[in-house]
Amino acid sequence: MKRQYPYHEWNKKRKQFSIIQRIGILSAVFLLTSVLSAGKWVPFEIFPSTDDQKSPDIYGSFVVWQQWVEFEGVTDWDIIGADITNPEDISVFGIAEFEKNQENPAIYDNVVVWQDNYHPNGDTDYDIYMLDLEDSEQVDKPVTDLLYDQINPAIFGNTVIWQDNSAGDWDISMADITDPENVDTFQLTPFEYDQLNAAIYHDTVAWQDDFVWEDNPDGVFNLFGADVLRLNKPIEYLFSALPEDQENVAACGHLIVWQQKFGNDWDIFAADISDPANPNVFSIATDTDNAEQPDIDGNLIVWQDDRNGDWDIYGFNLTTQEEFLISDNQPGQQTFSDQTNPRISGNTVVWQDNLGGEMSIYAAILSGSEVAKCPEKLPGDVNGDCIVNLQDFVLLAQNWLSCNFDQTGVCP
Fold first, then answer.
1. Cβ atoms of 268 and 278 closer than 8 Å
2. Would you place residue 40 in the very low, low, confident or very high pLDDT band (cuts 50, 70, 90)?
3. In terms of residue numbers, what domain contains 410?
4. Per-residue pLDDT for 266 more than 80?
5. What is the pLDDT of residues 44-95, one digit of tens each?
6. Predicted local confidence at residue 262, as pLDDT
7. Structural domain tally of the chain?
8. Are 323 and 346 found together in one domain?
9. Which residues 6+ apart lie within 8 Å of 1 measured at CB?
10. Is the separation of the CB atoms in 267 and 257 below 8 Å?
């Protein structure tokens, strides 16, 4: 049963703050976040509340998250959104404020998807739902209505993916939502063992898989991918197989990132899968502390890192090859907190922060040299670092007079 007034109820809550109270709250937020800031940017709290907020996602200037909300004496998880185009005048709105729990939202363009365990017949399994923010009637629609659980959705374009335990273990399934009234669904990984935590970018889907085979007798999580250009006949491949777990994959363009277990800590790795049969794997964060929950957009990778004694958000610029701190507790600060679960879109990063006891959603709009990118490749820039220098000459000299035509008679 849909609640009758999700949107004006949020506006009503916001209007309960007087002008003086709102100015006071914003001042307190900026004082706290100025202490937290690690670069030229100033993190800001998106919607100050005493409710727990977690699992943020972002696309452009729109942020979505799940929030623990009380309604007529009943508390459950709802999906809330915000437009942070102007951080000084953030517009907050309800997305899914129904009975039971709506969790783990994901957003692409103007479409939000989430897992939902509300059923009119009293069932409590999770299904995937969606809402088009540009729908004038603001009507949510089911992507799945299946037995057992469908959870952890992700979306790119008109394709939604999720993990599904209908077959007795976790598999990855997907749907084409071009026509929300007639959704076509496909099972991407109808395999043994568990396929979890899938990510999608264009036609590439990646996931972690504990399939036991001769090179993985202990069943640790390896990373698999698939080209889903043809939804009914995807082409699957393995791109990371090591004797310790690889988990929580994210994807953008021809790059994927993940966290990888080495000894007693987690590290961040990435791979260029332009040629899926020969992925180029390289490290991002490999010190002796834990680096987890990576995300990527464009030339920027973000993750949570506990090298400073608590969880902070770090970034890495693939163009400049420089690591930088996004949020941190500074020396002398009396109140410490964890910043976790980051997501990035463009130069904007969002995360959850337990400053003050409850989990809240914060954001930072990154700027300066930390986010520098290369608009176009320079002639002679052999290594792709946006600078033509001696390093490029060395690489060029190593291959001087080499010939790579597929017909040898063409070579001089």
1. no
2. confident
3. 378-412
4. yes
5. 999 999 999 999 999 999 999 999 998 878 899 999 999 999 999 999 999 9
6. 87
7. 2
8. yes
9. 98, 99, 118, 120
10. no
Map residue 42 onto helix, strand or coil.
coil
Does residue 365 share a domain with residue 265? yes
Q: What is the pLDDT of residues 358-383, one digit of tens each?
A: 999 999 999 999 999 988 888 988 88
Same domain, 97 and 244: yes
Is 328 found in the same domain as 385?
no
Please state the length of the chain: 412
Q: Determine whether 283 is exposed, middle or buried from the number of CB atoms within 10 Å of its CB (0-12, 13-18, 19+).
A: exposed
Residue 111 · residue 132 · CB < 8 Å? yes
Q: Is 396 helix (H, G, I), strand (E, B) or coil?
A: helix
Half-sphere exposure of 145 (CA within 13 A, CB side): 8
Task: Tell which residue, 253, 254, 251, 152, has the closest CA to residue 196.
Answer: 152
Same domain flag for 82 and 57: yes
Same domain, 280 and 386: no
* pLDDT score recorded for residue 334: 66
Quick one: pLDDT band at residue 214, thresholds 50, 70, 90? Answer: confident
Q: Is 116 exposed, middle or buried (0-12, 13-18, 19+ CB in 10 A)?
A: buried
77 plus 88 within the same structural domain: yes
**β-pairing, 184-187 with 171-176?**
antiparallel
Per-residue model confidence (pLDDT) at position 215: 76
**Quick one: CA dihedral 247, 167, 176, 151, positive or negative?**
negative
1 found inside a domain:
no
- State the DSSP H helix or E strand holding residue 30, giving kind and residue range, or none if neither: helix 19-36
